[in-house]
Amino acid sequence: MRVRSAVLVLVAAAAVAAAAFWFMTAPQPLSAAVLPDKPGDAAKGERLFWAGGCASCHAAPGAAGDDLLKLSGGVAITSPFGTFHAPNISPDKAHGIGNWSTLDFINAMKRGIAPDGSHLYPAFPYTSYQRMTVPDLLDLKAYLDTLPTDATANQPHDLPFPFSIRRGIGLWKLLYLDGETFKPDPAKSEAVNHGAYLVEGPGHCNECHTPRTALGGLDRSQALGGAPDPSGKGRVPDITSGPGGLGDWSAGDIASALETGFTPDFDSIGGTMAEVQRNMAKLPAADREAIGEYLKQVPPVAASKP
Ligand code: HEC
Ligand code: HEC
């Protein structure tokens, strides 16, 4: 009898835990009420496409020139949790996102949710893209709609259990996805706010320059203070205004490095930053200058060593 009641208690506890898991991991999509009634502007969206570096993950590996606009997917992204394969996001209706509504797209970018309601993995850097405004996302979607279709099928990710269970990402999101859109600081200039938006939102600079916790979330107390390189070799540098970061660089030096790929010491920018820099070079000069002005205002972090 005692054994039986203990079993019942365990079964009940497991049911409560399962219900709590189900409840806590439920996707929280945005409703159509967020949509403005004006259509997106593809020309403006092109600028966000380069700022967002979408081609770096979603074009075929090694793509260059016009092939960067063919978003067939295929780049493998290695992480401590397994290997992700960037999917096809071309306007192909069968293999890409050609059948997605604008709201589907906004939910992917701001909430990390696919149209069927499942959670997307944060290897897709929506922890940064969530900061983008809805009108900007409409523009970006309008631009993506103009790109060539491609019929490459998606490759499944290579993830061990429990990371293979998408539902669990709901718990991770409770810790690391706040759903906030970027808010300009009225005390700062328009250029600094524009730079902050590009860095924190589309540019997703934190995804490489900010260290991560053991659970793979961004440790925002060390924002932009440098981090181990995900490739396992070396470090992604500190780009705060501190002595271990860009303390000796002027805002103009930063803008020019993003344009030319050369640091003020005439070193060439390499590693994974080379591709980011090539994307940044496609932006109007004012965007790079704004990024320079903002980074010169980012406070050094405690770990920022000279
Ligand atoms: C660092 C690499 C990376 C970058 C940069 C990136 N993505 Fe992705 N993206 C991914 C990965 C990986 C997935 C797959 C996530 C999953 O399966 O849960 C993905 C998924 C998506 C999806 C969902 C597709 C589907 O079939 O479910 C969309 C939409 C998307 N990305 C759009 C974009 C856009 C737009 C940009 C640029 C603003 C962008 N991504 C930049 C890696 C990236
Ligand atoms: C995909 C990862 C990644 C992303 C995203 C990224 N960076 Fe970098 N960044 C790097 C790496 C790696 C280096 C070191 C390059 C080297 O060793 O040549 C670097 C170097 C730099 C440098 C040169 C610093 C120095 O001390 O030499 C600047 C400036 C910089 N990044 C700015 C940015 C900005 C601004 C953004 C966002 C728009 C950004 N990065 C996004 C990986 C990244």
UniProtKB/TrEMBL annotation:
Pfam families: Cytochrom_C (PF00034). Residues 1-32 form the signal peptide. Keywords: Heme, Iron, Metal-binding, Signal. The keyword Nucleus does not apply. Residues 216-247 are annotated as: Disordered. Residues 40-148, 190-299 form the Cytochrome c domain. This is Cytochrome c. It comes from Kaistia nematophila.
